[in-house]
């Protein structure tokens, strides 16, 4: 057995001559436990929100989306897009024309995003699972064009689930000059009616701004005949998403970008990752403060064991071995605190997942979910364990060497 480790283990478990050393050693372990537990819980909560947002996006966002690198639209018959939609792994391909417009209903108006889609849009996404109302999701009949609004947008416009009057849509003309004597000539104007439902993705980005309507309607409104804003795709079951995306990017070259669901929500997920990183950094600073207790414990232990160290020297132990004893002591305190803190953190995360012990506050139904979401990613647990070990070991290295030279 390693001699310094053996002595350090004896010192850790044995009773000290001064009871204060035992108390400070216990406080040192508790400090590391609390900081480690906080890291596990806080990062798991951030993971929970991340997974929650990701689950919402899958109901509306396509599995893969091909968009032009430059400009808003591209020709729908572009050979590159044709080659992509003919890949054997493609199950559903939907053309989309999307842009901003002005919606007016009675005396209320809102800037909206019109998302014009093909008739197979309900096969591409889970739109039928997130619509609410008396009717069903549809885009058009023989002579009627329907617009399905986001829930919050319908509320802002003062609509019910089935609005009785036409929803007027205004989009600026692409060509020509505005005649100030008749400003309405500068807009393409048309109307949509309600299919009797609204959709709710539980994301403000969609629920407050989007209207899903036929692609023929948006091509007319935005004067984009024969053009697409994006080609939205769903793969066949069992397809390798990463491999298909790589092949699409090879075909698309520099002309198009191929985006998966996370890349389509890149801004949202990037903000969440930054918040998670900041929380990790702040909690690591707290861990550093907790490590000062280990330094205090070790310095008092060195003083307490001066007679023992003299005996060890007489038995042939050199300064390096004696220093290693106290380094091992500090590292064992850190390792014990890290393991206990991780186990307690995982236990609390499990209890939150099973029983929802901590809620977000407010009245029931105010938030999408009432308890804080928690998702444990074991890669995070490994990073936390390594962080605790590295920080605590680095914190004790210099003080132990310093006190060893000064006091022994």
Structure characteristics:
single chain; alpha+beta; two-stranded antiparallel sheet; 13 strands; 17% strand; elongated
- Shape annotation: elongated
Distance between the ends: 25 Å
> What pattern of helices and strands is seen along the backbone?
HHEEHEEHEEHEEEHEHEEHEHHHHH
Beta-strand portion reads 15-25%
Structural class: alpha+beta
Task: Report the major sheet.
Answer: 9 strands, mixed
Secondary structure: number of strands: 13
The helix content, as a percent range, equals 40-55%
Look at the structure and give the mean pLDDT: 87
Q: Identify low-pLDDT runs.
A: none
The rounded Rg comes to 32 Å
Separate helix tally:
13
